[in-house]
Structures are given as structure tokens and as C-alpha cells.
Amino acid sequence: MAVSEYQNLDPIPGATDNADLWYQWFIASRGVAPEHVHRLYDREAVKESIEEDLEDASKEVGPDGTLWVLFITHGAPAIDGKDVV
Known about the structure:
Elements: H1 15-28, H2 47-61
């Protein structure tokens, strides 16, 4: 999942580009078939779509496989200006 568009903030570029690089890495370096790399961008990354993709991916990976979940986004400072950890 990659989110760079927010409802109450200006768009923050880079998250989808980062996700595309991860996609390429999974295919080229890890040997994952492209159809097994699920990607949700911006407004696609809603609760229902996330749950559906997780269910599909868990069936594809099987009981002995590894399921990677990446959430790429950008944080924002807390209202009081302090970083949130």
C-alpha cells in the first residue's frame, strides 16, 4: 500500500514511486510472480480493499510461505509540533 494523497493535507509525492520500486524488487530479487504482488495506491487503500487483498494474498502464500505487508506513507508532526514515535 502506498498513500501520498490525504484528505486533509496537501499531497506528498514519492510514496507510489517507492511502492513501484518495492514491486520491482520483489519480482527481480525475490522471484515473486508479478500476479502475487498486490498493490493499492492512495484512495484504493481503504479498509475493504486492504482486507480483501490480505485474504487473497494469504491464500496465495500458503502455510509455509512468507507474507510481506508494506505500508508506505509519510508521517506528519503532532499538533503540538513534537514528533510522534
